[in-house]
Amino acid sequence: MAEYSAAFKARVVKRLVGPKAGSASQLAEAVGVPQPTRSCWVRELRSVPVMPRRPGGERTGADKLRIVQEAATLEEPALRALLRREVLQRADLTAWRQAAEQALEPAPPRPKAGPSPEAKRVQELERELARKDRALAEAAALLVLKPIWGDGDDATPPKSGR
Predict the structure, then answer these.
(1) Are residues 68 and 37 in the same domain?
(2) Is 133 inside a domain boundary?
(3) In the 8-state DSSP scheme, what is residue 60?
(4) CA dihedral 7, 8, 13, 18 (to 10 degrees)
(5) 23 within domain boundaries
(6) Is 162 in a helix, a strand, or coil?
(7) Nearest 5°: CA angle at 149, between 145 and 152?
(8) Which residues have CB under 8 Å from 35's CB, separation 6+?
(9) 23: domain range?
(10) For 58-71, what is each residue's pLDDT tens digit?
(11) Is residue 84 part of a domain?
(12) 83-136, pLDDT tens digit by residue?
């Protein structure tokens, strides 16, 4: 029985089930590997769990900043090695650098906005409520004082019994 390298097996399986997969009979003629052996390789590779890759969206801000700072000091070969080590695309690194630069720029001044329409309406209602409270207090005072002043026919205060 022939021994095949892992890289060879992976290439054959990729040609068998990959995006540009050819027919199994054509592949058998091209590589000279029997069908049962190829089927066994496919089963083996499908049973191996895929290692989870850590996409750029799951990194913390501190991680992103560290990588951007480290990448700024590297030459091209070392930068490529960093991108491979961090499982990172150059576009992600560029986006992170732009975000960091943008975060360091001073924020544009906000225009001073007056009170919102809701706040204006609240103030208006509070003034109206205060005015009505004063009117109600005045009416209550008049009702309390009416028996003291009499029936209201004359405008003179009652005389005391002394």
Answers:
(1) no
(2) no
(3) -
(4) 70
(5) yes
(6) coil
(7) 105
(8) 24, 28
(9) 6-47
(10) 788 889 989 999 99
(11) yes
(12) 888 888 899 999 999 998 888 888 778 777 778 889 999 999 999 999 999 999
